[in-house]
Amino acid sequence: MNAIKTFVSGAALSVAIATSAIAAGVELNASSTGLALQGYDPVAYFTDGQATPGNWKITAVHNDATYRFASEEHKAAFLENPDAYLPQYGGYCAFGAAMGYKFDGDPQQWKVVDGELFLNISKDIQEKWVEDIPGYVTKADANWSEISHKDPSELE
After folding, report:
1. Of 40, 19, 15, nearest in space to 31 by CA
2. Is the C-alpha dihedral spanning 26, 18, 111, 139 positive or negative?
3. Nearest residue to 68 via CA among 21, 31, 112
4. Which of 2, 75, 86, 88 is most solvent-facing, going by the fewest CB within 10 Å?
């Protein structure tokens, strides 16, 4: 059973590397169209405590990425202070950043810690990450200065 889990996790990470490589920005994990957080509302994590899909009609552009919001109020809050709502490590997987890689962050695998939003690539990785959040954040912060400007494919 562990061999299957290892294989599935490895396959998921390989797919993540491939999809991250086509991201619009290097420091920011966005689709090829510039959509950030796969269309999820960044403010809702903080105000509603849940991953909430944004409305395609309520958007704002920040650092060349398009963010969607569930309400005009969320959009206004974001525009007032975008840095308060942006995911850490450009929306890439927090555990991946701790390991020195850039994998797609899944907007449904998230946690707000000390007022900062962190995403991870999968439920299994999220569970591993929460075992030592301070330790992984310290490692990711240290790695981020080295990997933030690199294309995900350069980190394989």
Report:
1. 19
2. negative
3. 31
4. 2
- The Cα 78–Cα 86 span in angstroms is 9
pTM of the model: 0.81
H-only helix segments in 1-149: 2-21, 44-47, 72-80, 94-98, 123-130, 133-147
Q: Are strands 116-120 and 106-113 parallel, antiparallel or unpaired?
A: antiparallel
**Residue 16: what residue type?**
A
CA distance 71 to 55: 8
pLDDT per residue of the chain (156 residues) written in tens, 0 to 9: 444 344 344 444 434 433 333 344 457 777 777 899 999 999 999 999 999 999 999 999 999 899 999 999 999 999 999 999 999 999 999 999 999 999 999 999 999 999 999 999 999 999 999 999 999 999 999 999 999 888 888 887
Residue 115 structure tokens: 């007022």
CA atoms within 13 A on the CB side of 97: 33
Compute the distance between CA of residue 68 and CA of residue 50 in angstroms, rounded to an integer: 15
Reduced to 3 states (helix: H, G, I; strand: E, B; else coil), residue 107 is strand
Residue type, 118: F
